[in-house]
Amino acid sequence: MSVVQPVAITGLGCITSCGDNVAQCFGSLLQGVRNPKPSTLVKTTHKAHHPVFEVIDHPGIDGADSPDLLRTSKFALVAVAEALGDAGWTREELQGKRVGVSLGTTVGCALNNEEFNRSYHRGQHPCMDPIMRYLQSNPAETIAREYQLTGPCQTINNACSSATDAIGIAASWIRSGLCDSVIAGGADELCRVVYSGFVSLMNVDEGPCRPFDMDRQGLNLGEGAGIVILEKNPRGTVKANVIGYGLACDAHHLTAPEPDGDGLRRAIAIALTESGKQHSDLAFINAHGTGTKENDKVEGRVIRELFPQTPFLSTKGYTGHTLGAAGGVEAVFSIVSLLRRVLPINIGFENPDPEIGAVPVMEITEFGGGIALSESLAFGGNNSAILLARAD
Amino acid sequence: MSSEIAIDGMGLVGAFGTGKEAFRSAMAKGRCEAQMLAVGPENDPGSDDKEENLYPALRAELEGLEEFISLRALRRMDYFSRLAILGVGKALLDANLMDADRQKMGIVIGTGYGASATTFGFMDTMLDFGDACASPTKFSNSVHNAAAANVAITLKIQGVNLTVSQFELSVPIALQAAMDWLKNGAADTIIMGGVEEYCRPLGYCYQRLFGLHDGPMEPLAFSQQTAIPGEGAAFLVLRRLEQCKQPLAVIDSLKLGQGRAEIPQHGKLIIGADGHNQSAKHYADSINQHQTSCFSPVYGSMPAGAAFDMAAAAIQLADSAGPIHCLKYNCRGDYAITTLSREGIS
Asked: Does B226 touch chain A (CB under 8 A)?
């Protein structure tokens, strides 16, 4: 493999429980503000009410518009609108251009409507609206349809690494000449089915999550979207570049990482090879850091061994685990950190875990370097690593 | 490093049976017989006996899974993953790659509906036993990438691993990623294909949306709705041409577009029309004077059907110089043209 051509990122968009846009989200991170609470959307009969990071009362999500779209697609629309505006693109300017869409999701592609299934399972004829909504709500297709885009279109379902993979593959589209611009990232929504699924796996914290902390008990679920605009010939301000991307599979277990982190190591190695950079060139690492025992142990050890001097943090303490959106949200946060040369703290962390042997960022940290690594580890054993470089 | 990507083997599972020869025989016959299956609301007494609650489907015939996975592991494996494991395993055997390096081998899967049966099954455990008794095994197998993950775990494939869900264009866009990874050296071998599974709720949705169906699939009757849901797995072993042992076909090009497809004049055409009249009009507008085939009555209507069309093209190229263009549309008018030939294969 050889060093690849950097691909420019000109626009950012983000919506999570900690903010309706990039500025609000990152502001919450710097202020150390987070607000996990029991869900207003997801009602269950579980004894414990695991806190979630829910987007509440956003007119673009909870309003009456687009009742035929899943919540995931609405998140994507909001974040894409911000990102395109940030990149200086109007709707009209996009027409006739070779613009692709590459988004990651988990819930957004799942045929898991409970209302339909409950009725059908109990011998009744259900209303077909949920099925029609599902067929209309493929996230990438929703964006392409909204903006009348005619470029390549894909929705990636690689569980928690979906959005990182979506951005990495989008960069390869630009390099291969498939299109000139790509709207890339991820979106996902809170869902009762998925909530119960994670509770059944017993890796959800009954309190706010504590990534890398010795007493961590699991993850909190979240929702939202993180979007970047990639361009071949940027005409506006370039904020950052995608300089490397690696993907490797543990081939070990459906829900637990390989104990030695072999897949993660290989993904990082591939990304570094593509970028032509060394381990020591990294300014910081945005870790996957879900707050589960196993993920943080494996990932933390790999970070300690490969990057002993590099600051690292998880931002999931602010947003929850947004599943298919996580890689997009974290790419946005990484780029903003690079631009502002400041790292928020790894909220929720208090006590180092001797099994990890590494300590994440515990105070607001300024830095001078220009390259960030964002990692995502997924159900199924996927490990994705993407390298982002500040444009200067 | 060569930029030409070739098909070095294939693994096929469907209503026609398992394997390349079973598929080839079915292609010659032109169709497979559908089964009439109960699709009415579950747990409705007497519902299954009513004729109006029957709907045709082309269910797959799985043979030979035990060659790739132990019976013990198979017990915990859901049907969607079984389809994928069988398809990928057969593809590796066909390409004589069972002993190849697995770190530079990848899996790329296109699927429209994913593990839908497992998803409905998981929701049923919540309904029947309460939220607290939801099945963790069913949940972890219900995610779209469960098949790709289980294939990787079972067959120890440790390279790139990707699942794409873009309905009818899932497989072509998966192919794009596979080709990019092979060309840039991120992988030496990628087993790329499509998987779809049938489930009772899917059959019910067909019945509700399209009404009673009592005839065969007629995908070339463009004004009619004749789709019959199918299930199966079709996987192609993709490698750079110079690494292939017995290449079946070269992938000359993959073109993605919208509207009327401009199909090169020279060569034959395989269309992915599968009896859905919403997408049929696009095929009708695009077909010109090409010699046109359609094999969807062999595997059924499914979003990932394009993988079977590519396999059909590669099989036909054994007796034909080519090129063969595989055309797949979605109902929005987005299309993919995958062109295969034997150019460069001695």
From this structure: no
